[in-house]
Structure formats: C-alpha cells, structure tokens
C-alpha cells in the first residue's frame, strides 16, 4: 500500500474535521427543544370579593407558537389559595361555576382567564406575587413561574 502524499493527507484530515462538525451540528439541533420552552405571560389583574374569599383574576397569555395544555397551577407562599377557571368564561359567585385548570388547552396566541381564590378569613394578609404553572408542550412537562404585573395584597376580613 502506497502512503498518502502530504496534499492527500491534508485533504483527508479536512474531510474528517468537516464530517465531525456536521455530525455535531446535527446532534445539537436534534437534542435542543423547538421554540420557547416557557411561552406564558400574565396580563392585567383584577381583585374582587366573592363571599368569604378574595379572587384575583388574570388572563394567562400563550406567547408561543404552539398550543399549551395546562397541567396544574398554584400560588406559591399563599396558604389556602386555589387556582381555578370559570366554567363558561363568565364570573359568578356560584361554587359550581368553577373548574380546575388541569386539562385546559391555551391555543398559540390565545388567553385563558384564571382566578386565584384566597380565603378572606385568614390570620394574616397574604401578598400574591404570582403563579407557578405546570404545562405540557408537545408531550414535555414544563414548569414556569409567572409574576403578577402588580403585587396583589389581600386584606383579611
């Protein structure tokens, strides 16, 4: 077998380096998730009293380019708070007009109104700073912390 000339050796080395670079780019492209993994944001909030609870309403906007399925939502640091959504999109004081957020799909560019219900009879006045939302995007579960545009102090009754 005849040894490679100097010129052929460089060509072989360049071809090998190019092949490694192409393979690495393909692997990184395949492994990285598509799009923004945290596409939600909160809109302007409203505070109202319904019976024995304070309710903070805010639209959750899907800023991404794919639909997002809500898995769960909570208000961290606020004892007794529940996150829910209106059954038919309208607000009422009836207890049966609310449903959990799990399973709700927010389309790309769409909104879903959520309520953070805080018991009004509480030992101290909590400040709701935001939501922690678990969602499913293309079969992957992602958790995102959403900050309220304005902190919402709830006065106890």
Main sheet properties: 6 strands, antiparallel
Rg for CA atoms: 25 Å
- The computed structural class is alpha+beta
DSSP summary: helix tally:
1
The portion of residues assigned to helices is: 10-25%
N-to-C series of helices and strands: HEEEEEEEEEE
Q: Give the C-level CATH assignment of the largest domain.
A: Mainly Beta
Name the shape in a single word.
rod-shaped
Number of domains: 2
Keywords:
2 domains; transmembrane helix; single chain; alpha+beta; membrane; rod-shaped; 6-stranded antiparallel beta sheet; transmembrane; Immunoglobulin-like; 157 residues
Structure write-up:
Keywords: Membrane, Transmembrane, Transmembrane helix. It is rod-shaped and about 90 Å long. The chain has one helix and ten strands. The protein is of the alpha+beta class. The model has no long low-confidence stretch (mean pLDDT 76). It has two domains: 32 residues; 114 residues, Immunoglobulin-like, CATH 2.60.40. Helix content is 17%, strand content 43%. The strands form two sheets. Strands 1, 2, 3, 5, 6 and 8 form a six-stranded antiparallel sheet that branches. A four-stranded antiparallel sheet has the order 7-4-9-10, with no helix packed on it.
Task: Furnish the topology, listing elements before pairings.
Elements: H1 6-31, E1 40-42, E2 46-50, E3 53-62, E4 68-74, E5 82-86, E6 98-99, E7 105-106, E8 111-119, E9 127-137, E10 140-153
Antiparallel strand pairs: 1-3, 2-3, 3-8, 4-7, 4-9, 5-6, 5-8, 9-10
Task: Summarize it.
Helices cover 17% and strands 43% of the residues. It is of the alpha+beta class and 157 residues long.
């Amino acid at each position: 077998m005849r040894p490679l000339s100097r010129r052929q050796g460089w060509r072989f080395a360049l071809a090998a380096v190019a092949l490694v670079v192409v393979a690495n780019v393909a692997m990184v492209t395949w492994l990285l998730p598509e799009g923004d993994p945290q596409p939600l944001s909160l809109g302007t909030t409203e505070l109202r009293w319904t019976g024995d609870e304070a309710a903070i309403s805010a639209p959750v906007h899907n800023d991404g380019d794919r639909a997002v399925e809500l898995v769960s939502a909570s208000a961290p640091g606020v004892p007794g708070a529940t996150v829910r959504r209106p059954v038919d999109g309208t607000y009422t004081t009836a207890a049966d007009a609310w449903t959990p957020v799990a399973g709700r799909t927010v389309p790309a560019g769409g909104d879903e109104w959520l309520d953070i219900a805080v018991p009004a009879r509480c030992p101290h006045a909590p400040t709701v700073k935001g939501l922690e939302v678990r969602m499913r995007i293309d079969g992957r579960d992602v958790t995102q912390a959403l900050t309220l545009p304005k902190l919402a102090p709830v006065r106890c009754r």
